[in-house]
Structures are given as C-alpha cells and as structure tokens.
Amino acid sequence: MLNSDKQYHIHLREGDVGRYVLLPGDPGRVPLIASFLDDSKEVAENREHRTYTGMLDGVQVSVTSTGIGGPSTAIAVEELSKIGADTFIRVGTSGTMQDFVSPGDLIVVSAAVRDEGTALHYMPMAFPAVADIDVVDCLRQACESLSVPHHVGVSHSKDSFYGEIEPERMPIASRLKESWEAWVKGGVLCSEMEAATLYVLARTLGK
C-alpha cells in the first residue's frame, strides 16, 4: 500500500521536489537533465513518472518525467502542485512545421493550438493555452545569452502521433491534412503533445 502522504502516481511527498520542475516526457532523459544540477538524486520512480531533485545556484530544482501526451502530463502536474511545485517547464522534442526552423533549434513555446482533448476537462475550447509571460521571457533571454538558435511562438498540441505523420491512412485524412495546412499558414512553429494541457491546467491551478 502507498503511504497516505505520498501522491498516488508520482510517489512523491511534500519536500521531495522544489518549486521549479522540469518536465521531460521520457523517464530515460531525467538522469541526463538532472546531471546539470548539483547533488542531484533520484527520489521516486513509478510508471512513467521518474523524479530527480538537486540544486541550481542554491535553489532546489526537480526533474519529473510525464510520459507521452496530455493525460499523463496532467496527472504529474496535478500531483506535483499538491506538494509545493508551482513553476513547470516542459522540455522535450517536437516536429518542426516551418522551413526556417532547423533540426536542433530550440523553440520557446509561448502558446499552443488546442488540438487535444485533456484540456477540455479543465476549460472550454474557447479558453486559450498560453504560457506564463515571465517564464517565456526568461527562457528567451537564456537562449540569447547562450547564443543558441531559437524561436519563440506557437506550437500545435495533438493527441495522435501517427495521425500527424501518417494522415493519409486515416479515415479523416482530408480533415487532418486541411488542419495541418492551416496551422502552417498561421505560422505555428512545431507540433508536440503536451504544451496545451500544461498551459491550460497551470492556469486553472493558479500557477
């Protein structure tokens, strides 16, 4: 049985994490990211959720994997927020949608197209998925200070990986292709599977 003071899915309790949490999808990436922290150590692992905590410039910072997609991301953020985390930064891969975005460029996602379902359980579709402007500005400044190729803008959040990369075999192929063309023409920079859920959920949590 799980101790009552631990969160059900992430197996963490208050004090295990800092207020700042980096959120990769892949549990295998957590140790690599945590290696940039001082005195980092694994504090929990359960299902897709693996967490390391360490120090960065004297501040406690944690890294928790979310797994792929909105539902598991929502679980991680909900439970992390209950034990003191209040600033979440999603770190992961995405597929470029614009020719001027090169492989390896960083994208600071300021908002996301809500082409997914999880966020609908928090807010109606008319509610925008927008990142915290202060966090976005800090990330942009960090990219500039490090002279890292980067872009700031909108991403496309979806639920189906193969609906994007193999739309022609789907019964709704024409709708998928038409929507994709619209996002590209609208200047959407990349496609991923978590940002919209994170941004809408964070707003409802007051984070």
Automatic annotation (TrEMBL):
CDD domains: UP_EcUdp-like. Belongs to the PNP/UDP phosphorylase family. Residues 19-206 form the Nucleoside phosphorylase domain. One of its GO terms (cellular component) is cytosol. This is Nucleoside phosphorylase domain-containing protein. GO terms for biological process: nucleoside catabolic process. Pfam families: PNP_UDP_1. InterPro entries: Nucleoside_phosphorylase_CS, Nucleoside_phosphorylase_d, Nucleoside_phosphorylase_sf. The keyword Glycosyltransferase applies. The keyword Magnesium does not apply. Gene3D superfamilies: Nucleoside phosphorylase domain (3.40.50.1580). Keywords: Glycosyltransferase, Transferase. One of its GO terms (molecular function) is pentosyltransferase activity. SUPFAM superfamilies: Purine and uridine phosphorylases.
